[in-house]
Amino acid sequence: MATVRWDGSLLRVETDSYHAAVQTEGYVSGVMGGSFVDKRTGGRDLGFGLVIVDFLLEPGADDETTPADLRYHWGDLVHGNLPKRYVELPQICTQAKRLPVQIVEGKKFVAIRQWFTWTIARPPYRPGSQWEQWLVFPDGVRWFLAYDRVTSANTVDCLLLRMDMPSHIRHQKGDTFRQVYLSYHGFIPSDAFVDDFPPDARYLYRREDGKVPERFIRAYQLRNGVWLAGMALHPPIVYEAWCHQRGYVCLIQEIGGVKVKAGETFGAVHLVGFFDDLAEMERTFDAHKNARSLVVSAGKRGAGRGARDAKWELR
């Protein structure tokens, strides 16, 4: 039975297949780095967290009207030659500090919702957009679901939400993983990430550069052979995705990239989990393909843990 318990400011989740933890204070959003553990193989995520969320951006370069403290830095090894501008800040994972939480416990799943309202905007935009994230941890599978949704306070021609997907990879000259798989590129051996290079030098995905892939899967294989994969279940929602080396393998992903009017929402559903091989990843993706939202119902409280009719549903 999937369970959740408080451990200080942490929420510790256990299903029949894995352990995970969610931080409500400190480095927040998504699943805490190093806490996602596959019971079958002992595999563990290698990054700073899974489905970690940053800020809102748009394409284009800042000009002299942008205050110095609100300028986005690019043209270097970290951000490459990919000009962007902030729309709203701060970075949620490092600067929100504390997030409110809602917990739903069903008979065979645990769901956790967190949310944040951005407080800083680059002129001419105003702050006030809201981010929310549902994490659903079901029994019977080795994966969880994440639904990130933004309600915009502004009208923006090409609004982007940046996140880590599935997670960055900490390593020393490829010692912690065997290879990376990108569905829009193929397999990449770990020794390709020995030296730093910018995101636009290799393995960059940009939606406008070509055909949207049938499946959008990004994964890395641990030394024990198990794969940890992150899947955008509706591939057209991904605007840009990086896979580059900057002291660690950086797996940034940006969703959206469409015109959003003030008061409108956009979002994406990701599936993140452990898999034995690519065939299993593809079967799982195909079983949930084109999901654009996730709805969690708290149901009515009954005897024992959880609600009698709590449920979750992909739409």
Fold and architecture overview:
This protein is mainly beta and 315 residues long. The protein has one domain: Beta-galactosidase, Chain A, domain 5. It is built from two helices and 28 strands. It has helices at residues 92-95, 278-288; strands spanning 3-7, 10-14, 18-23, 25-26, 31-32, 37-38, 49-50, 53-59, 84-89, 97-98, 101-105, 109-117, 120-121, 130-138, 143-151, 156-164, 177-182, 186-189, 205-206, 217-222, 227-232, 238-241, 244-245, 249-250, 252-260, 265-275, 294-297, 311-314. A nine-stranded antiparallel beta sheet has the order 11-12-14-15-26-21-20-17-18, covered by helices on one side. The longest helix is centred in the C-terminal third of the chain and has 11 residues, at 278-288. The mean pLDDT is 96.
Low-confidence stretches: none
What structural category characterises the helix and strand content? mainly beta
**Strand count:** 28
* Strand order in space, largest sheet: 11-12-14-15-26-21-20-17-18
How many discrete domains? 1
Helix-strand string: EEEEEEEEEHEEEEEEEEEEEEEEEEEHEE
Largest sheet: 9 strands, antiparallel
Shape: globular
Q: Provide the CATH architecture.
A: Distorted Sandwich
Estimated helix fraction: under 10%
Q: Proportion of β residues?
A: over 45%
| Rounded Rg | 19 Å
End-to-end Cα distance? 25 Å
- What is the number of helices? 2
Q: CATH topology, anyone?
A: Beta-galactosidase, Chain A, domain 5
**Overall pLDDT level:** 96
